UniProtKB/TrEMBL annotation:
Protein's name in the database: tRNA(Ile)-lysidine synthase
Keyword Mitochondrion in record: no
InterPro entries: Lysidine-tRNA-synth_C, Rossmann-like_a/b/a_fold, TilS/TtcA_N, tRNA_Ile_lys_synt, tRNA_Ile_lys_synt_N
Chief place of localization: cytoplasm
Domain Lysidine-tRNA(Ile) synthetase C-terminal: 338-407
UniProt entry keywords in alphabetical sequence: ATP-binding, Cytoplasm, Ligase, Nucleotide-binding, tRNA processing
EC number of the protein: 6.3.4.19
Function: Ligates lysine onto the cytidine present at position 34 of the AUA codon-specific tRNA(Ile) that contains the anticodon CAU, in an ATP-dependent manner. Cytidine is converted to lysidine, thus changing the amino acid specificity of the tRNA from methionine to isoleucine.
Protein residues bound to ATP: 18-23
Cellular compartment(s): Cytoplasm
Amino acid sequence: MELFTPWDPEEKVALAISGGVDSMVLYQLLNTVYKETYDTLLLLHVNHGQRTASFDEAEYIVDMAQRNGQLCETVTLDILSAEFSQEKARVARYDFFGEMMVRHGASVLLTAHHLDDQYETILHALLTGRHLPGRMGIPVQRHMVDYTIVRPLIDASRTEIVDYATAHDVVYFEDETNVRTDYTRNYIRHRLMPQIRESRHLHEQQLLRVQQDMTDVDALLKDRADAFLARYNTHIDRRVFNQERRIVRLYILTTWLAAHGEVPRRRHIESILDAIESDIPNASFETGAVSIVLSYDLVLKVQSQNEKMEMLEIYGDGTYHFNGYKITAHMADSYYPLIVRTKSEGDRMAVPGTGRKKLSRIFIDNKVPADERCRMPVVVDKNRQIIALGEIYNIMDSKEKKRQLIIEKEFTNEPEK
């Protein structure tokens, strides 16, 4: 059986070994035919702790590694049966793998995903609405921060793997939970895939073409989103945004948020798209470290309360956001640019009917909390004169000036009715 082996003979590789037929066959191949393709082989085994037999299986794998002169690191997950889920187990497994890869200086992590896993993953993505955004299916390689994940068996079918195990007397263990169909992936494996294979009009190989097509579509949509966002920074023209096709808008929002490390679920993005497309004038949607804020004709990306902006430049009319404040400017061109910043030592401003006054004194007189003083917007005109301080003083907010500069605290956690 041929393996995909992109690593170098000098590298230390690790194998995620479960004890199932796929990982045990991969181990047998690495220990025989492909023994010269790497320098050192490290085994990593995760016992989910949900079956009595899993403890005996873990002991067998450790003993097997010792017999072959290899190191095997194991862990038993501390997840109660009532709280166990496939997603929790997957996250815990990869946390363990990542820790071990760094500890042992391994550069490549091998997993035993095969062609049937690929088919099931693609079908799962299609039927659960997870086909976009992002690449479909299992990548043959995935580059992590400290190591690379490689799937050497990704082109081999499960039938080929089982046949190899039989021909070479490979010992492996069957997980009885794999036949249960209350897990979505197991349902696809045992209920859908057999029906597809029995039909002479359906061909499972076409799923690979769907994967490639969707990968190309994903790349095109990412390019389109990048080109759109190149014209904007902290805010987007709502009307122009809505002129794009909905799938493009989905990618624009996803890309925008990804720049802050946020990857919301698609249904959350869809709810934001619905609001942007509606006639709701103001709304705010929390997405982890940032919020997407609707403000009339604008869609804005606002940092969370735990982050602080130090400066914002305003070059024209519009609505802007700064440390939890909404700043609306409708001024003559001669006033721009404005600088919005936080307080500086020695700042003074002209207070109507009082004269020039230190900001520190204004904060004290108005009983502004210390943490708020560091966040409150100080607006400076192009002549470096302070013309506004949060909601406290604003020389542009007068009857004569016709409210050309409005500063107000944001309270937009719920859409307006």
